[in-house]
Amino acid sequence: MTKIAIWCRHEQDNIIGIGPHIPWHIPSDFKRFRRITENSNITCGQTTYESFPNRTLPNRKIYVLTFEEQYQVSDKDNHFVVTDALSLQDFSNTLYICGGASIYKMFMRNQIPDVIVDSCFHGPLNPNLQGAPVDISECIDIMRRQYQQVSPDYEEEDVTTSVWCKKEASVSQEVLNHIMLSIINH
Ligand SMILES: NC(=O)c1ccc[n+]([C@@H]2O[C@H](COP(=O)([O-])OP(=O)(O)OC[C@H]3O[C@@H](n4cnc5c(N)ncnc54)[C@H](OP(=O)(O)O)[C@@H]3O)[C@@H](O)[C@H]2O)c1
């Protein structure tokens, strides 16, 4: 079924994090992410999972990627450990790929996402954060070569969002409609 990568990156340098933190606070970006992914399945790396408040996101099933088979999730009914990332290629339902950088890179190198929700933040990075910048430039290069933009640019609160589909892939219209309506209906 449909796999969707969803990220918010900083313009030009494609930074998505500093250390474990997202270096901006844009309420509308969090709300857009919630509208798109709520009541669905998401996957993320262990570092990103640990950064969620109380290690959870309400109303979502979370597939946590880790090499540690004994990793303890915070909610055993709704969160699941996955040690073989490529097994998600055969995931039988809609799946949102939610970072961080190692996960975006692994999925993009294998061209697994059918759809990308590409949000680009134009404001300044938070200068008070400690840690190494984390960027996904490699993913953006792959996106520009192997995907095509299928939506207009949507502007909200210093963030431009567009939707991209893998070239020559047939993508579920229902999923695309859901994503576009979730972006527009704020
Ligand atoms: N702006 C955005 O849209 C956005 C979204 C999400 C995250 N972020 C940012 O991204 C940064 C985190 O990215 P990151 O790359 O450091 O960490 P990450 O991708 O969130 O997690 C890395 C961890 O995932 C596990 N992992 C990685 N590849 C795997 C594979 N192939 N199979 C199974 N498990 C695998 C490993 O966990 P173990 O060590 O447990 O084995 C690894 O240490 C943070 O700054 C965060 O804020 C930004």
Description:
- With 186 residues, this protein is α/β, with parallel strands linked by helices.
- The chain has a single domain (3-184), classed as 3-Layer(aba) Sandwich (Dihydrofolate Reductase, subunit A).
- The chain is built from five helices and eleven strands, in the order ββαβαβββαββαβββα.
- α3 (101-109) runs parallel beside α4.
- The model has no long low-confidence stretch (mean pLDDT 96).
- NADP nicotinamide-adenine-dinucleotide phosphate (NAP) binds at residues 7-8, 16-17, 20-22, 44-48, 51, 65-68, 83, 85, 98-103, 106, 134.
- NADP nicotinamide-adenine-dinucleotide phosphate binds next to β1, β2, β3, α2 and α3.
**Main beta-sheet strand count, sense and barrel state:** 9 strands, mixed
The number of helical segments is 5
CATH topology: Dihydrofolate Reductase, subunit A
Averaging pLDDT over every residue, what do you get?
Answer: 96
Beta-strand percentage range: 25-35%
Tally of separate domains? 1
Query: How helical, in percent, are the residues?
Result: 25-40%
Report the principal-axis shape.
globular
Count of extended strands:
11
